[in-house]
Structure formats: C-alpha cells, structure tokens
UniProtKB/TrEMBL annotation:
Keywords: Isoprene biosynthesis, Nucleotidyltransferase, Transferase. The gene is ispD. It catalyses: 2-C-methyl-D-erythritol 4-phosphate + CTP + H(+) = 4-CDP-2-C-methyl-D-erythritol + diphosphate. It is an enzyme of class 2 (transferase). The keyword Phosphoprotein does not apply. The record marks 152, 208 as: Positions MEP for the nucleophilic attack. Pfam families: IspD. It comes from Geobacillus jurassicus. Transmembrane segments: none annotated. This is 2-C-methyl-D-erythritol 4-phosphate cytidylyltransferase. Its EC number is 2.7.7.60. The record marks 15, 22 as: Transition state stabilizer. The keyword Membrane does not apply.
Length: 228
C-alpha cells in the first residue's frame, strides 16, 4: 500500500547555532533537507510529499526542489509555532492516502526499508514508530542532583518517520488541539487517546541533526555509506 509523507522543515534550528535554518546546511555537498527528501522521492511506495516550511523560506525550498529534481513534493504547508502545529497544518494538505508517514526533515539517514516496515505496521496496528534501545543510564534530575535512576530495560529512544492510519492521526491531533495539549512527537497524541502504538526497531544512524556535534556524526555516517 502506498503512503503520503509529511516532511517537517519549518523549524529555526536554534540549537544548531548555525545562524540559519539547519535544513539548508550542506552535508557532503547537498543540503540536509534535500538528502531527507530524496529518500521519500525515490521510494515507489511514496505517493506524494507535503513539505512544511516557514512561508518566508518557501521560495528557497522551491529552488532546491528544482535544482535537485525532487519530484514528489506535491504541496507545501505553513509551519507553525511548535512542531505539532506544523504537523497539523501538513495534515490539512494531504490528499487522503490511508497511511501517512510524518518525518523530521532533520533526519536524513532514514532507510527505505524502514519506511516500508513502518507503513506496513501502521496498516496492521494503526500507529507505528521507529525506536532504538537506550544505551546510556538515564536519571531523573532535580536542581542538578540525581532524583532517581530510571530502569533502562524498558527505555527506547524514539525517532521518525512516525506512521499512522490517517483517520487515527487526524483524530489524535484534533483531540490534542481541543485539549490544548502539546506533545514532542505525534505518537504521544495517539497514546493520550488510548490507542496502541507499535515500536519498530530502528537504526542508531537515523539521527536527528540538532546540535553542532551532530554534523560530525553525520559526516561519519555519510562516509560509512560511501564505503558500503
Ligand atoms: N515549529 C516547528 C519546529 C520544528 N519543525 C521541524 O521538526 C523537525 C524536528 O525539530 P527540531 O529538530 O527541534 O528542529 P528545530 O525546531 O529547527 O530546532 P531547534 O529546536 O533547535 O530550533 C525539524 O525538521 C524541524 O524543521 C517544524 O517543522 N516546525
Ligand atoms: C519527533 C522526535 O524527533 C522524536 O524523537 C522529537 O521529539 C522531535 O523533538 P524536537 O525538539 O522537535 O526536535
């Protein structure tokens, strides 16, 4: 079954401290957002992409789509104040495929096979997200003193794309909007309305480029890909 993708690129990249939206930073000669979009653009199961951007940057994104021959971006949607608002606006621009994958533009290393696993799991379970087991010990901290060590055996670090049956994610976003609830990922909105979310084992290399040192990790991942 095909899916539609919402790719989020409307943030400011504040933590990257690059003085610009990190989506335009180059990785191995290509802008971050182009690398991310290419994965979906080349996937035959991706029917179309909605790209969520800051309206003030739309023409810059349009030039990149043309320069790098990205064909499947069928619509733009306006970014919002928070990531959740951007997703909500992206949902309104979908054409109605049964499955939608919602992805951070800042995650360029997602693999096509994971897109397919997530889409298939969303058909079966309604919601499916990629995650990797936490490798560090995680502690709850108050005032820079340890309050509690969390049992690591049940902790997973969650990534994107997050895959959903369209009707479910629309219901979850509307419910969150009505309640004034703000979550840091889309799955949390589904959880709060009591629906199951399936974990699909992800890839540690599917990093979200957030802070400057992530660029170093990204260059290493790129180099390892070239060596593959
Ligand atoms: N209002 C927002 C906030 C974030 N994003 C997107 O959501 C993804 C994950 O967000 P994050 O990594 O936090 O990106 P930024 O918000 O740009 O980073 P920062 O918080 O450091 O400003 C990014 O691709 C970002 O462009 C978005 O579309 N709209
Ligand atoms: C959605 C996400 O990438 C899952 O880990 C993460 O919650 C995004 O957080 P951000 O602060 O909006 O980058």
């Amino acid at each position: 079954m095909n899916y539609e993708a919402i790719v989020l690129a409307a943030g400011q990249g504040k933590r990257m401290n690059a003085g610009m939206n990190k989506q335009f930073l180059e990785l191995g000669g290509e802008p971050l957002i182009v690398r991310t979009l290419k994965v979906f653009d080349r996937d035959e199961r991706c029917a179309r992409i909605v790209l969520v951007v800051n309206p003030a940057e739309r023409s810059r994104f349009e030039l990149l789509l043309d320069r790098f021959h990205i064909r499947k971006v069928a619509a733009f949607a306006d970014g919002g104040e928070e990531r959740q608002h951007s997703v909500y606006n992206g949902l309104q621009a979908l054409e109605g495929e049964e499955i939608v994958l919602i992805h951070d533009g800042a995650r360029p290393f997602v693999r096509v096979r994971h897109l397919h696993e997530l889409a298939d799991a969303a058909i079966q379970y309604g919601a499916a997200i990629p995650a990797v087991r936490v490798k560090d010990t995680i502690k709850k901290v108050d005032g820079l003193f340890v309050e509690q060590t969390i049992d690591r055996s049940s902790l997973w670090a969650v990534q994107t794309p997050q895959a959903f049956r369209l009707s479910l994610i629309m219901e979850a976003h509307e419910a969150a909007k009505q309640a004034g609830y703000l979550g840091t990922d889309d799955a949390s909105l589904v959880e709060r309305i009591g629906k199951p979310v399936k974990i699909i084992e992800g890839d540690y290399r599917n990093i979200k480029l957030t802070t400057p040192e992530d660029l170093l990790f990204a260059e290493a991942i790129l180099a390892s890909r070239i060596a593959e």
